[in-house]
Amino acid sequence: MDIVSIIISTTLELPTLENGAIHIVYPSLLTPVVTGQMTSSKSENGGKLEEPGATSCFGATSGKQGRVLDSEQQCTHTIFTSPAASLAPYELNFQLLVRGACLLAGLESPTHALRADADPSAQSASATYITLAQEHPYDRHIEIILHLSEPHNPLVILERGRLSFSQYEELICSRRDFIRCTRKDSEPERKVEFVRKRYHKDILSSPVLMLNFCPDLLCEPLELHKATRELLFLVDRSGSMSGTNIRRVKEAMVVALKSLPSCTMLNVVGFGTTIKPLFTSSKLCTDVGFTQ
Predict the structure, then answer these.
(1) Rounded to 5 degrees, what angle do the CA atoms 157, 159, 163 make?
(2) How confident is the model at residue 289 (pLDDT cuts 50, 70, 90)?
(3) Rounded Cα gap, residues 23 and 286, in angstroms
(4) Measured between alpha carbons, how far is 214 from 102 in angstroms, rounded to an integer?
């Protein structure tokens, strides 16, 4: 007869729609569909609701009238693969805090009415507090679509690690395996290789840089939808290139272009004192030539 609080922390990649909006589907395990019904009847100590078929989360029957299948007789595979369901209504308090590098242009839900407010503790306008405007019905799950103000602009997000650079450097230098490694070979490349091998172990201590980019493919010409790959050829045009090397480059370029499969996006960029691309944007390469 006590209250237990369970905190579940998880990380997942949210799918992006074609228009750049973010589609959030709340885990169905936390919003099971109610398959039973509640009947209202007055008890001796007041008008309370009785749940004839209610069960606990462990499958135990509450009430003599409830008849549920013993969990030991159920197939384990069915339990974990079937959609989450509950025999009795439950209480759901849904709160979603959205923080991002760009502002929300709007939000919608195909399943629920939503209410959006500014987070009282937010330090910027990029934080939004989303709740349900009406009581959660038990016959559906929660889906939310977030529309960003600039969905097709690249966003760079830096998440700082638990340690600063000096603290992480001190941590690495104090490790016995690092000391043994540098004792044999003190070259800088050796030290860099040691740190590189520990990336997956020290991921929480180091900062992480994430690039979010959702190109607007709907506004592109229809012929570009046929493209299967994009190739960029970088050609050295500096003064150090001799005439023999230039001829070899031209011959190699001819062979490479003739070997390209159809539906390839192509551009050639020459670099030297200045950088000059052949096209302002990559062109679709076909058997006939380039699509202008």
Answers:
(1) 155
(2) low
(3) 36
(4) 14
Closest CA to 136 of 33, 213, 246: 33
Backbone angles phi, psi at 244, to 5 degrees: -65, -40
Q: Which two tokens stand for residue 284?
A: 């679709």
Closest to 102 measured CA to CA, from 147, 158, 161, 159: 147
Q: Of 233, 287, 280, whose CA–CA distance to 263 is shortest?
A: 287
Taking the alpha carbons at both ends of the chain, their separation in whole angstroms is 74
Task: Extract the tokens encoding 248.
Answer: 């070899």
pLDDT digits (tens, 9 = 90+) for 149-180: 877 888 888 888 888 888 988 888 898 888 88
The pair of structure tokens assigned to 237 is 């045009």
CA distance 27 to 17: 19
Gap between the Cα atoms of 161 and 205, Å rounded:
5
* CA distance linking residue 214 with residue 257, whole number of Å: 29
Structure tokens at 116: 């959006």
Q: Determine the distance from the C-alpha atom of residue 164 to the mean position of all C-alpha atoms in its chain, rounded to a whole number.
A: 26
Assess contact for 47 and 169: CB atoms under 8 A. no
What pTM did the predictor assign?
0.51
